[in-house]
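User: Is it possible to get a 3D structure for a protein together with its bound compound? The compound here is fe (ii) ion. I've pasted both below.
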Amino acid sequence: MPIGSHILHLADRVDILIRREKEILGQVKGICAQIRENSGTMFLPELVDVFMSLSTKEYFWFDIVSPSISSILKFRSKTVPIDLDIMDLLNYAKLFRKIIDFRSRLTATHSSEVAATAEALAKYIGFSERECHMMKIAGCIHDLGKLAVPNEILEKPNKLSEDEFYIIKSHPYYTYRILETISDLNVINVWASLHHERLDGTGYPFHYKGENLPLGSRIMAVADVFTAITEDRPYRKGMSKDKASQVLQQMAQNSALDSNIVSTLIIHYDEVDSIRFAAQAAAFKEYQEFKRQSGHINWLQ
Ligand SMILES: [Fe+2]
Ligand SMILES: [Fe+2]
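Assistant: Yes, that's possible. Here is the predicted structure of the complex:
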């Protein structure tokens, strides 16, 4: 087993032993005793020795429980910048897409469909090839903030309570806050995170209006609504072409969605819908494979 895995294992156990509601220094003795007890069985003895010498320093424990731990780490650890080209970034985005979507059967194919639709719309609108790739990346991670929403809410079969709806509403906010930590992703972040904003300012969470909403964000909003109403869900079929076109046109008329983008979608409806459908089918296959493999892992344990 690589040393990195041993280190992570020890760190994970230490974190689990900490009781956040209690003062930290008073817990050090107990935590160290438990770690020492498992030296040579659960943990590498030489790693336990290193941990014991670290544990005598108060700052280490104060850091662990500090609410500013992320900025402390950012300041303390040397990060090595890596260069990713757009296709590398797309591969990372696809990985995150699975992390976001595969939490629930109800969302298993959603980001794939949004990504494929947004990319297709961007192509028709006249975005460059690179911008189309960026749009696809933004589509894959537009619901990243849903990781902050508990599964019970995502999967609730009946109507959401007011509080639950407030929690759902936080997801584009978290998408934005997570992605803004990487400044090179600024454009992609804006395209991804503003997908619930509406041209008339009635969207959320920023309530940007009209000209404050970049074209990429408007495309994402249309792609997200289109996907939400046309995708099949386990409890209902997606809307027909007529019905979906009607809903989108109504939203454009009400100045919620961009009417040019909606018109572009309606003109190319069949092509876009078949691209979306193919993305749904491919993602569903991946999801089934993932479930099969994770079922296998559970069985092994
Ligand atoms: Fe969303
Ligand atoms: Fe979405």
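Residues 143, 171-172, 195-196, 224 surround fe (ii) ion (ligand 1) (CB under 6 Å). Residues 269-300 form the longest helix (32 residues).
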